[in-house]
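Thread: Modeling a multi-component assembly for a lab meeting

Hi all, long-time lurker, first post. My supervisor asked me to bring a structural picture of a complex we are working on to next week's group meeting, and I have zero experience with this. I have the sequence lines for every component (654 residues in total). Could someone generate the structure of the whole assembly? Inputs are pasted exactly as I received them:
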Amino acid sequence: MSIVDVEEIEYARRRIAPFIHKTPIETSLTFDEMFAFGRNVYFKCENLQKCGSFKIRGAMNSVIKAKEEKPLLKTVMTRSSGNFGGGLAYSAKLHDLNCYIVSPQRGSELKRHIAESYGATVKLYKSTFADRDNLIARVKEETGAEYIESSAQESTLCGQGTCGLEILEQVPEVDAVIVPCGGGGLLSGIATAMKTRKPDVKVYGVEHSHALNAKRSFDKGSLFIPEELPATICDGLGNTTLSQLTLDHILEYVDDIIPVPDEESVQAVKFLMYRVKMAVEPSGAIAAAVLMDPKNIEKYFKHCNNIVVVLSGGNFDFINKATLLQT
Amino acid sequence: MSIVDVEEIEYARRRIAPFIHKTPIETSLTFDEMFAFGRNVYFKCENLQKCGSFKIRGAMNSVIKAKEEKPLLKTVMTRSSGNFGGGLAYSAKLHDLNCYIVSPQRGSELKRHIAESYGATVKLYKSTFADRDNLIARVKEETGAEYIESSAQESTLCGQGTCGLEILEQVPEVDAVIVPCGGGGLLSGIATAMKTRKPDVKVYGVEHSHALNAKRSFDKGSLFIPEELPATICDGLGNTTLSQLTLDHILEYVDDIIPVPDEESVQAVKFLMYRVKMAVEPSGAIAAAVLMDPKNIEKYFKHCNNIVVVLSGGNFDFINKATLLQT
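Re: Modeling a multi-component assembly
Sure thing. I ran the full set together rather than chain by chain. Output:
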C-alpha cells in the first residue's frame, strides 16, 4: 500500500499554481441559521475553478508531470463522465498535447462540449464496464496516448489534494470538511493534506445513496465494485467507483462516508441557486445537502463549529435541463 | 428642480450600512476576451445583496428615515413589480412595521413570495395604470400606510446611490459604468454619486428595447409615459417608468440610455450562469448584455478601459421558469 506524502501535494501546488484559481470561500448566514443551527459553514467554491470544477487541479498536475518525464509526449487520454475530461482537455491544450476522452453515452452533454471546446476528441461507449474498457484499449492502441487516471493515479490525487491545503489557509479554524466522492480522488487528496497538517479535523466523504460503492468499500475495508452503476442526477459521481489507491487513502484518513439521496442534492442545488445565487451542479452540491438533513448534523457534526463544504463543480445545463431539477 | 447632494448619499450610506452587504466586484477574463476586446470589465454584484437585489438600499434608507420623522409609524406600503417589494418588506420587518405591496399580476411570483416571506401583504392589480392607482388609493385608505416610492423619492434615490460610492472605492480606476434603468432610481443615485466625485466617468443607463420610455424621456428632456407597458423578460424594469425626480437627475448626470433587446439580456443571463456560475435575473444582466454587442463597444466605450457593469438583481425562478430562457 502506497500513501502519498503531503510534501508531494505541496509540490503539486507549486507546479499547478500558475494555471489554476485559488478559489474563494463563500458563506451564507441564511444557510447557517436554517440548517446548521448557528454553526459556521464555509463553501469552498470549486464551481468557480477554471473549467468549472476541481478536476483541473489533478489533470494539470498529471499532464505537467507526464511532460516532465516524457518530453516528446504528443497525446494524452483518459476516461471521464465529464469534468475530468474538460480539465484534461484544457491542460493538454495549454501544453500542446492532443487529447482523447472516453466517456459514457449517458454522461453530461455540456461537459462533453467543454472538453471539445478545448480541442479534445470525445469517444462514447454505451454502458457497461466491458464496453468502456474495450474502447479505452482501442483508443490507446490507435493513438499511442499516455493514459491519465481521473483519480487512481498519485499525481492526480496530489493535484486534487491542493484544494485541502487552500482550505487550511483560508479557514484555519476548520474542524470538519465534507467532500463529494465518486472515484475518490478529491476526497483522498483533501483528507491526506488536511489530516496530516491538522490531525483532529473530521473528514467526511459523501456519495449519492443509489449505489453506496464507496460506503461499502469503506465499511468492509476492501474494494467493492458493482456490476452496473445505477442512474443518478449526480452525473459527476455516478459513473465511477473507488480505486485501490483512493480506497487506501480513504481508509487511512477519512472518518466516514455519508449517503445522500438525489432529491436532497437537488434541494441543495436550488438553495444555492436561489439564495446564494451560485450555479452548482448536483454532484457539486451534494456536500451541502449533507447539512440540510438535521439527522446528519446530530450524527456527524454535533461538536463541530466550523464546517467546510466543498462545492466541487458547477457544470450543469441549468436552463435546457431544468426539468431534471423540477421536483 | 431638486437634485440631491452627494452628502445625502454619504449620509444614507452610514444609515443603512449595518443592515446591508457591501457587495463584491467579480471579474471574468473570458468575458473580457470574448466581448470587451481586452478591456477590464468589473461586475458589481447586487444580485448578492440582501434580498437578492440593490432595492434594499433605497427601501432601508426610506424606512429608517420615515421612522425617524414619525416615531409612531406603524405601516408602510409601496407599489413594486418585485424586488423593491422584497426590500421594503425586509426593511419593515427589521423595524417592526407592517408592510403592504401593490403589485402587477404579471409580476414575478418568486419576488412576491420573497416579500411575503418577510411578512408583507401583497395586493395584485390587473394591468393598467388606472387599476394600479385605484388599488394604491384603496390600500392607503384602509391601512393608513406611509407610502414609500420605489424610485421617485429622494430618500430612496439616495439609498440606491450608495452603490455608486462603493463602486468608486472598489474600482477607483473606473472610467465607465452601465446601470439598468426601470424607474431610474439606481441610475439616478449612482450617476449623482459618481459624477460628483469623478466628473469624467461615463454613466450609461440601459433599458429593454420594447418600450424605450427612458430613452424617449432622455432625448426630449421631458417625461414620456406610455399608455401601456409592453411585456418583457426583464420583469424588474418593464413595469415602471421614470419619474420627474429621476429624470431630472438623469438629465443632469447621465451620458446616454442604451437599448437592449430581450434576447440579448437572455444571452447575458446564460453567459453569467454557465461561465461565471452566477445567478442573475434578466433585468439584472441587461447591463452585461450591452457589452456583448460589439456595436455598443464601438459606439459608447471606444476609449474606456475599466468598465463597471451593475448586475442589479438575481431573483428569477431559473428552474421552474427555465423555458422562458430557452431561446
